[in-house]
Amino acid sequence: MAENEDILVSVRNGVGIVTLNRPKAINSLNDVMVAGLQRALTEWENDDAVGSVLLTGAGERGLCAGGDVVALYQSAKSDGSYARKFWWDEYLLNAHIGRFAKPYVALMDGIVMGGGVGVAAHGNVRVVTEKTKMGMPEVGIGFIPDVGGTYLLSRAPGSLGLHAALTGAPFSGADAIALGFADHFVPQARLRDFADAVVTDGHEDALNSYAEEPPASELVAQRDWIDDCYAGDSVAAILDDLRAHAEPAAHDAADLIATRSPIALAVTLTAVRRAEHLATLEEVLQQEFRVSVASAKSHDFVEGIRAQLVDKDRNPQWSPATLEAVDDAAIDAYFASADPDLTF
C-alpha cells in the first residue's frame, strides 16, 4: 500500500498491522481511515491466518489527535450529512473494536484524544507510555464526549471520569490505566522493540518482556476532593463545590470548566450519568450518536471549532453564555431520537 495513503494495512507473521498515517495532522481520523480500519477488522476476524491486530500511528507526536473536526465543522455549517455519516460509521467501528474477539493491541503513545480514544481504548490490549497524553476535550469545542468515551468515563473509579469529562483536561498514561482507558505500561524508549516483539513473539511474550509497573496516578491521588466536588446534581453545583474546596487544584478545575461551553457541559454531565446505567457499549454509542447529531445543529459546536481550530482566536462566544441560561428542555433535546437512530 502506498506510503502516502491515510491508513496503512498489512499482515506480518499472523499479525494484522494498522498504521494511522496522517502524521502532520497527528493522525486525525477521516472517513477513509474509519472505512479502512473497519474493512481490515472485518476481513481479519474470520481469517485464521491472522491471530491478532496491532494499531499504531505514524510520526512522533501521537497515535491520534481525534476526528478531523474541521471537516465536521464544514458539514455542520451546511446540511450536516457528512458529519452524520462520519459519526455513524465511526461509532460502528468503535463497537466492532469493543467486541473484536482476537487480541487488539493499541499503542497509545503521545497524543490520544477524542476519536483516538475510540479506536484504541475499546481494544483488549491497550498500551500506554510515560509520554501518553490522553483526553476527551470535547467540551472545549462545544461538543460532548463520544466514540464510547462516556461508557469509559462513567465506569472510571469514583468521580474521576466526570472530572476528566467536564474539564476536558488531558491525563497521563498512568492515569489512563487507573481510569480504565488502558491496561499496560511500556516505556516509550522500548515501545518500538515491544511492537516488533508483538509481531515476532506474540503479544503475551511481548508484554512479559517489556511491560512495567506504571507510575502512580496523579488523578487517583486527588480522588478525595474530586469525589467530594463532583457529586452535585448540576454543573453549577459542581462549580460551587470546587470553588468552596480548600484544595487549590479544585479551584484550577473550576477555572477550566468555566471556560467551556455551558450547554456542552450540562449535556456531558447528563450523558455520563446516563451512560452509567446503560449496560453495553452499543447502547452508549447509540446515545452518543443522538447527542452528536444534535450537537451538529447547535451554535456552540460550530462556534467552538471556529474559535479553536479555524480562526484560532481562542475566544468562543458561547450561546447560551451561562450555565444558568441552560434549561432542562435544551438538555433533553440532545437525547431525542436521531431519526433514524444508530443500530448495530
Automatic annotation (TrEMBL):
GO terms for cellular component: cytosol. Its EC number is 3.1.2.4. GO terms for molecular function: 3-hydroxyisobutyryl-CoA hydrolase activity. It is an enzyme of class 3 (hydrolase). Keywords: Hydrolase. The keyword NADP does not apply. InterPro entries: ClpP/crotonase-like_dom_sf, ECH_dom, HIBYL-CoA-H. It catalyses: 3-hydroxy-2-methylpropanoyl-CoA + H2O = 3-hydroxy-2-methylpropanoate + CoA + H(+). Transmembrane segments: none annotated. GO terms for biological process: L-valine catabolic process. Residues 15-335 form the Enoyl-CoA hydratase/isomerase domain. PANTHER family: 3-HYDROXYISOBUTYRYL-COA HYDROLASE, MITOCHONDRIAL, 3-HYDROXYISOBUTYRYL-COA HYDROLASE-RELATED. This is 3-hydroxyisobutyryl-CoA hydrolase. It comes from Mycolicibacterium bacteremicum (Mycobacterium bacteremicum). The lineage of its organism: Bacteria, Bacillati, Actinomycetota, Actinomycetes, Mycobacteriales.
